[in-house]
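User: Can you model how A4P sits in this protein?
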Amino acid sequence: MANTELINKVYIGLGANLQQPEEQLHSALEKINLSDDITFCQCSSFYQSAPMGPQDQDDYINAVALLKTTLTPLALLDFLQSIELQQGRVRKSERWGARTLDLDILLFNNEKIDLPRLIIPHYGIKQRNFVLVPLAELAPDLIFPDGTPIAQLISTISQQGLKKL
Ligand code: A4P
Ligand code: MG
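Assistant: Here's the modeled complex, given as structure tokens:
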């Protein structure tokens, strides 16, 4: 029988604004679902969101998914980055520029992780409506590792530029 203590509960953020973004998200979720090490549990609605950062780029499609995995945080990051690369992600020096697919690990259990390659909770999680709103759809009662309830953030964040599809 599987040792349930080894199963980690993870929320990931998905974002894309190039080359049929909705298809990019569907395709990434399919690849995740095929992994033997990950159980896909749930995905939020897809949201269209105005770009954060340079404004001369298309709107994004964003969503949040809940996964269960036996992978360590770094092994999960490797796997998600391999999906980004398979789907044509080119890392450019411009910050917050357009991309075919961005997969961020938002939360890993209730852990705080601070490694050169991986910071969890993801640094933008509390400020970005395109992360908070889909996350709250899946987990309205969530409490962040620092004790902040998501409901408190949702009650004050602007939902300007965000449209549920
Ligand atoms: N990294 C550290 N912590 C994490 C984590 N929790 N999850 C490291 C994933 N990666 C993490 O990421 C750079 C490095 O961050 C990785 O190599 C990993 O080791 P990246 O994906 O190559 O770079 P990036 O995504 O361009 O940089 P950054 O600053 O993370 O960008 P963001 O914050 O992801 O923002 N507007 C809308 N509306 N919707 C969006 O989704 N996304 C961005 C990108 C800009 N504007 C957007 C959106
Ligand atoms: Mg990223």
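A couple of observations from the model: Helices lie at 21-34, 73-86, 129-138, 150-154. The radius of gyration is 15 Å.
User: Helpful, thanks.
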